[in-house]
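Hi everyone, sorry if this is the wrong subforum. Our group has a chain we'd like a structural model of before ordering constructs, and none of us has done structure prediction before. Sequence below.
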Amino acid sequence: MKKYRISRILMFFELIIVFGLVFILRDTQEKSGSLSVAFNSDLNKGLEKEVIQASQTELYREGVYNPLYTFMGELTGYAGDCALCTGYLACPPRTNVIKEGIYYNDKTYGKIRIVASSRNYPCGTILKFDVGKLSDEPIIAIVLDRGVGGNVIDLLTESEEYAIKHVGRVRKLEFEVLREGWSR
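Answer:
Right subforum, don't worry. Here is the predicted structure as tokens:
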């Protein structure tokens, strides 16, 4: 019985040491600048292109923009005030896009677009896609809404008119999944 108690006490101390090491290593990683962010110390609120590019280069180096996998799908557009829409997103934090707008501020990716998808892609999934008629740069978006099927991705726009005229339906578009769901 005495040996059993001693072994349990030793296991308890080993467990405390392991948890202590995990917390120390986690703090060290957070302080080392993981997931760098571009800060603006300029009073005119404009970020220089070099600062943004340096920040994005650092994020690429850290693997934030490396795709987990890709898939082929279609891109369509919608607006929060459409006939069947309530203005509220289906995924948490269930914001009202009529009041909040078409962008979401993600802790890792910053200000990104909002998209709707099927349940094939969990809420919080980050997608990257390139549509030249919409933007010169690739679009980074987060899945915060539902309402489409299969591999159709529905980009939230300012108005239905904009969705119809500018987005339309883009077929055979390659989407990169940068993060699947809220946790990576």
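For your construct planning: The beta strands are 69-79, 103-106, 110-116, 126-129, 139-145, 152-157, 169-179. The first helix runs from residue 2 to 31.
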